Amino acid sequence: MVEAGLPLTDSLEILERQESGKLKFIVKETLVAIQGGTSLSNALEIYKEVFGDIYISSLRAGEAAGVLDKVLLELSDNLEKKEEFFGKVKGAMIYPIIIVVGMIGVIFIVMTFVIPKLTGLYKEFGTEMPLPTRILMFISDFIVEVAFVFPILIVAGFVFFKFYAKKPNIKAKIDRLKLKLPIIGPLNEATLMTDISRTLAMLISTGVPLIDGVQIIGRSTGNVLFEKAFKRVSERVEKGFSLSDAMREQIVFPDILVEMVATGEQTGKLDKTLGNISHYFEVEAEQRVKTLTSAIEPLIMIVLGVGVGFLVFAVIMPIYSLTSQF
Question: Which of 32, 101, 195, 286 has its CA at a distance of 20 to 30 angstroms from the CA of residue 316?
Fold first, then answer.
């Protein structure tokens, strides 16, 4: 609407009529603030927890340069790309997650309700059970005895991640583990690099100073390791070092990202170069997701086949032993 020539106040009035809930309230308060002479970036800064540093800093730079419409389009485009990318990743992971959760649920039900009744029937005959059946009975008895622990573990896990996992030292260990896990680690790294490079490209293209952009990215990564790395990078850039040299000193950044940043600095097209490398990491992340899902599906089938085969074998063997006695 701003690009089409509508005044900002008129645009916000239209948005207010379209929206609902909390967003409607935010738009209304923003409109009142702008009508009182406040800039859009200052009006939105009151709701910093909603919009974040990236949006507010970009808007402030756009207002200073008189290109607010272009900045709004950049922000919109960046958000659409980010949502599309994370949607692909989440969508690809939904199927294996559903299968795994369903498999665990079925195993729990079978072990706690079905197997005890069958084994109880076998015990009444007083015959010695085959080894697979005894193993199955032991597993079933163990699960039944500790079944009450599972709700406690779920609540404890929720409390841990809600309160204790946010502490800096614990969060740093969790973030480091996320990057070191096999298969999952490289996927997390590629996802982070996609978001970092794309967002930094957007900040630079909208006119945000490089140092400010690096600091904003550091605060918005959601990963303590990269937050600390970007803090050290911003300190080096403030002292006159190039962005690529400052990033080269930090081990968390992949070599290809550092080299592409150096190329962008040499050609004077850092924002476009970062946009290109973000596409590279996006493709890499999508390929890793496809590889992960392709590997998980047959693995799940193998585990299911072995589990079902063992279950059937352990249940049927005592029946043959009992029939042979008559």
Answer: 101
Helix/strand/coil for 206? coil
User: Cα dist. 74→15, 137, 236 in Å?
Assistant: 19, 62, 28
How many domains would you assign to the chain? 2
Does any domain span residue 121? no
pLDDT tier at 103 (50, 70, 90 boundaries)?
A: confident
- In one-letter notation, the amino acid at residue 149 is V
pTM of the model: 0.71
Give the pLDDT confidence score for residue 326 in this predicted structure. 56
**Do 196 and 62 belong together in one domain?**
no
Cβ atoms < 10 Å from Cβ of 123: 12
Domain with 62 in it: 8-74
Distance CA 56, CA 59 (A): 5
CA dist list (Å): 165 to 156, 158, 197: 12, 10, 27
